Amino acid sequence: MPFSQPAVIRSRRVVLPDGERPADVLIRDGKIEQVAAYGSLLAGERPDADGGLTDLGDTALLPGLVDTHVHVNEPGRTEWEGFATATRAAAAGGVTTIIDMPLNSIPPTTTVEGLAVKRKVAEGQAWVDLGFWGGAVPGNVPDLAPLHEAGVFGFKSFLAPSGVDEFPHVEAADLEAALAEQARIGALAIIHAEDPAVLAAAPQQPGVHYRDFLASRPADAETAAVSHLLETARRTGARVHILHVSSAAVLPLLRRAREEGVRVTAETCPHYLTLAAEQVPDGDTAFKCCPPIRDETNRDRLWQALADGEFIAVVSDHSPSTPDLKLLLEYGGSGDFAAAWGGIASLQLGLPAVWTEARRRGHGLADVVRWMSAGPAELAGLTGVKGAIAPGCDADLVAFDPDGEFAVHAAGLHHRNPVTPYAGRTLTGAVRTTWLRGRAVDTAAEPFGRQLTRPAAAPTTPSDRPS
Ligand SMILES: [Zn+2]
User: Fold this and answer.
1) Which residue, among 66, 54, 18, has the nearest Cα to 376 in the 3D structure?
2) What is the DSSP secondary-structure string of 379-400?
3) Cα-flanking dihedrals φ and ψ of residue 399, to 5°?
4) Rounded to the nearest whole angstrom, what is the distance from the C-alpha of residue 350 to the centroid of ligand 1?
5) Which of these, 247, 324, 315, lies nearest to 285 by C-alpha position?
6) Separation of 100 CA from ligand 1 center, angstroms?
7) What's the pLDDT tens digit per position in 118-145?
8) How many Å apart are CA 132 and CA 28, to the nearest integer?
9) What's the gap in Å between 123 CA and the centre of ligand 1?
10) What is the pLDDT of residues 263-279, one digit of tens each?
């Protein structure tokens, strides 16, 4: 329903910044105007709210998720994933804002021209709101300030090869120069932290056995890279964010660095929290990503860190490719983990995947909202705009049935390619309706997502973590 008029959404389970309770939410002009006592609006108090009442009953109302880690791949590798397919999947999965990664598309977002190409291609194709990260690669220090000025949310760098030739990784001197410049302009540096020397020294045994792949990307690669990064951040004063932490062994390093005043945050991903190495079938390269999914003991430590507030965000790292590049057995591929494309497709499934496991571990919806909506909004400098059901925020909302069960059929997802490690699993938690700025998203109708730029006035330093 398009809420051109003021409207009310009512639920017995509204997830607000201070917890979950029954409430009425008044929406006007695409923004949340008021959060009021349950049943109080349209009962005389706000008779002007004539855009209608949607009563969700026991279905929960969440702020739309903010996914700051999505690889859309268009243009250049649109057959892997494009803006239309990615943003439809996002909306269907309760994600109302995505920030696109600067690589796997061609051109990469490492120049203002590259950003302009992406923005043009994305026009009219986005069912959710959409922002862009820039990339910091060897030699593009002079491009960082203009890109930042043009509204990218920060800059991604790889400390090890990225998997695509047009987005090279940074060596120590490049990293130093990039972080010094980002400290100068007040940008957020987001980093893929694996150490190439540790990876090169690890046993490289190709084949269908997941344990061989795991041995080829050891936890030491993460700890070595994070140590080096934190040293550089300390020297340059840059604000850094560690992407997709897979190994819990990096957590003590982050704690120590924070105590010493280094500005560092970290994220982890649904697959590290919900899947485990022990469960990966031989040859099932849908599970391949870098850094890799590790063992159950490590997974428990990631959950503990999440509960302790050590991660600012849980975001998808949605990074699909075509089935042939995944070398999937059912597509006639070799199932070789070493040669398959590394990346997991989960944009539409992150919320139910995390909720299924979170609930089992005794967490509530408010926790999931903090990790997947408010936290990533804070990371991106969008607090006050996205990530909360609070007056003044965009009315990006999700009707979510916390008890709804469904079986994952990869071909039934909006992702461009029917490949995901969650295929065949039963997940709990179903998205019923997604509203973007007060309007219900209909993926069969015209898209009305907007392109976002980094808010000029937004702080580039999220509040100290853990909170
Ligand atoms: Zn990624």
Assistant:
1) 66
2) HTT-BTTBSS-STTSB--EEEE
3) -85, 115
4) 14
5) 324
6) 9
7) 999 999 999 999 999 999 999 999 999 9
8) 27
9) 23
10) 999 999 999 999 999 99
Distance 36 CA to ligand 1 centre (A): 39
Kindly indicate the confidence band of residue 435, based on its pLDDT and cuts at 50, 70 and 90: very high
**Across 156-167, average pLDDT:** 96
**Least confident range of 44-58, 77-91, 117-131, 317-331:** 44-58
How many whole angstroms from 298 Cα to the centroid of ligand 1?
20
Paired tokens of 106: 């061609």
| 244 alpha carbon – ligand 1 mean position (Å) | 7
43 pLDDT tier (thresholds 50, 70, 90)? low
- Cα(224) to ligand 1 centroid in Å equals 19
Q: 170 is written with which tokens?
A: 């940074």
Q: Which residues contact 169 (CB under 8 A, 6 or more apart)?
A: 137, 157, 158, 159, 160, 161, 162, 196
Alpha helices by DSSP H, 237-321:
251-259, 270-274, 296-307
Dist. CA 205 → ligand 1 center (Å): 24
Q: Which helix (H) or strand (E) holds 191?
A: strand 188-192
Residue 345 CA to ligand 1 centre (angstroms): 11
Ligand 1 centre distance from Cα of residue 174 (Å) = 20
CB 273 within 8 A of CB 303: yes
For 43, which DSSP code?
T
Q: Residue 342 C-alpha to ligand 1 middle, in angstroms?
A: 10
pTM (predicted TM-score): 0.95
Give distance in angstroms: CA of 349 to centre of ligand 1: 16
351: pLDDT strictly greater than 70: yes
How much distance in Å is there from the Cα of 317 to the middle of ligand 1? Answer: 5
Task: Please give the distance, rounded to the nearest whole angstrom, from the Cα atom of residue 260 to the centre of ligand 1.
Answer: 28
- Cα 343 to ligand 1 centroid, rounded to whole Å: 8
Can you tell me the distance from the alpha carbon of 191 to that of 333, in angstroms, rounded to the nearest whole number? 31
Identify whether the C-beta of residue 241 lies closer than 8 Å to the C-beta of residue 265. yes
Question: Would you report the helix, strand and coil content of the chain in percent, each value rounded to 5?
Answer: 30, 20, 50
Q: How far is the centre of ligand 1, averaged over its atoms, from the C-alpha of 272 (Å)? A: 13
Which tens digit of pLDDT belongs to each residue from 169-228? 999 999 999 999 999 999 999 999 999 999 999 999 999 999 999 999 999 999 999 999
Distance between Cα 71 and ligand 1 center (Å): 6
